[in-house]
Amino acid sequence: MRIPRIKPGNPNPRGGLTSIARNQDGIRLLISIIALSAVSLLGLRVGLDATMELRIIDHYEAEVQAAFAANAGMARARDVLRGLRAMSVCLPPPEQLGYRVITSAIDP
């Protein structure tokens, strides 16, 4: 009498899979698809969060630069109105830039 050899992963010595094994394969496939979907959604969410943070940082940097430019412009205008040349090292005199300088009789 010949003894049938059992292949790994095949619990039935006749060569066919039992109905329990077939059902487990379907459940394994379903669980793996659900897990893959969950990991994909998690990766998509992380990517969207990173993109949103980069946009927030860009807008913040632009806001800070605009605030510094506005403060520098106000300081320059104040100095020009007072007749001071404190910033003449950084910028040419207002006359060279095309601005009219109005001298006031009021002493600052």
Q: Keyphrases for this structure?
A:
single chain, 108 residues, mainly alpha, 59% helix, rod-shaped
Question: How many DSSP helices?
Answer: 1
- Sheet of most strands: none
Number of strands: 0
| Estimated structural class | mainly alpha
Uncertain runs with pLDDT below 50, 5 residues or more?
none
In what range is the share of β-strand residues?
A: under 5%
Helix percent band: 55-70%
Global morphology: rod-shaped
Give the C-alpha Rg: 39 Å
Name the helix and strand elements from N-terminus to C-terminus, one letter apiece: H
Termini distance? 120 Å
Estimate the mean pLDDT confidence: 76
Structure, described:
With 108 residues, the protein is mostly helical. The protein contains one helix and no strands. It is rod-shaped and about 120 Å long. 0% of the residues are buried. The mean pLDDT is 76.
Give a brief outline of the structure:
Helix content is 59%, strand content 0%. By secondary structure, the protein is mostly helical.
Note the topology.
Layout lengths: L18 H64 L26
